[in-house]
Design a protein that fits this description.
By secondary structure, the protein is α/β, with parallel strands linked by helices. The protein is built from eight helices and 17 strands. The protein has two domains: 242 residues, 3-Layer(aba) Sandwich (QueA-like), CATH 3.40.1780.10; 71 residues, QueA-like (Thrombin, subunit H, Beta Barrel). Helix 7 packs across helix 8. The longest helix has 13 residues. The mean pLDDT is 95.
């Protein structure tokens, strides 16, 4: 298939630049794969859409404030995005117009040297451990399509309420709609909740540049399935209960580490699984997700799960009825 098969027109006015005041009040589109029907609810109605015995799996990764602003030559503003820690003092980074050996001054208390590490990869080597500076002065790494500077409120709104394990440079956005109240209501209805970790990496910012999707090279990301989660997933599957993934990151992690029969073992490591139409899902029965960019690997994953034509029809209805798109936008539940 071609990348152009997953294209659609996204008006800029439908991109959510800010979250709603109340997380769980976003719109929720319901896609029924069996009957090919579309319904419209609110996210706070999700507990009533789940079944007793369902297993809801959430990604507990925590977004780090990975955008740092400094100066070069004492005056010119310069931004870097930290993407992966390499050592106590060094990080992989993305930036515009890097130069090998360039020195960036961060607030006069921390300096970083830009170093080329391969053809297209760059590092920043700090003169001391940058952790305290990152936590204090770093900004949340909002995606580039949110065309505004990060604000202090984003430290809360661009983080799930169950975020625990630091390491992501983008939020698992389907999880942004959950609140503690909503999670408690879901549990009270007899739904199990379990957690895994996938640290969303720089691949989330990289567009698909090839036309044949088979030629796309997925960026590897760290993923971990704890023993308890593996046991719960295997037990639910053996008992015929549904596995509901909250987000594409959960889908990729579960399907990456499942054997041919869909059974999981506790595991940690890197996954570069690229899910596109034709993929055979072994674990996931339902998916909660946001509305994704045209021509993106995320839209390809959704299309693999629900069918490309059905998904694109749903996206057109979302546009027609005023849904908010992308990270801070509305949600979809595919069952």
């Amino acid at each position: 298939m071609n990348t152009s098969d997953f294209d659609y027109q996204l008006p800029e006015e439908l991109i959510a630049f800010y979250p709603l005041p109340k997380r769980e009040h976003c719109k929720l589109m319901i896609l029924d794969r069996e009957h090919q029907t579309i319904d419209h609810r609110r996210f706070y109605e999700l507990p009533g859409l789940l079944r007793q015995g369902d297993l809801l799996v959430l990604n507990n990764t925590k977004v780090i404030p990975a955008r740092l602003f400094g100066k070069i030559d004492g005056k010119k503003r310069f931004e870097i995005l930290l993407t992966e820690r390499m050592s106590a003092h060094a990080w992989k980074t993305i930036m515009r117009n890097p130069k090998n050996g360039m020195i960036v001054d961060f607030n006069g208390v921390l300096k970083g040297k830009i170093v080329r590490d391969g053809k297209d990869q760059w590092l920043v080597e700090f003169d001391e451990n940058p952790d305290e500076h990152i936590e204090r002065f770093g900004k949340m790494p909002l995606p580039p399509y949110i065309r505004r500077d990060p604000e202090e409120e984003d430290r809360v709104s661009y983080q799930t309420v169950y975020a625990e394990k630091e390491g992501a440079i983008a939020a698992p956005t389907a999880g942004l709609h959950f609140t503690e109240r909503l999670l408690n209501e879901i549990k009270s209805r007899g739904v199990e909740i379990s957690y895994l970790t996938l640290h969303v990496g720089e691949g989330t910012f990289k567009p698909v540049k090839v036309e044949n999707i088979e030629d796309h090279d997925m960026h590897a990301e760290y993923a971990e399935i704890p023993e308890e989660t593996a046991l719960r997933v295997n037990r639910a599957r053996s008992e015929g209960r549904r596995i509901i993934a909250a987000g594409t990151t959960v889908v990729r992690t579960l399907e990456s580490y499942a054997d041919e029969n869909g059974n999981l073992q506790p595991r940690r490591g890197l996954t570069a699984l690229f899910i596109r139409p034709g993929f055979r899902f072994r674990v996931v029965n339902g998916l909660i997700t946001n509305f994704h960019l045209p021509r993106s690997t995320l839209l390809m994953l959704i299309s693999a799960f629900a069918g490309r034509e059905f998904v694109l029809r749903a996206y057109e209805e979302a546009k027609r009825t005023g849904y908010r798109f992308l990270s801070y936008g509305d949600a979809m539940f595919i069952a």
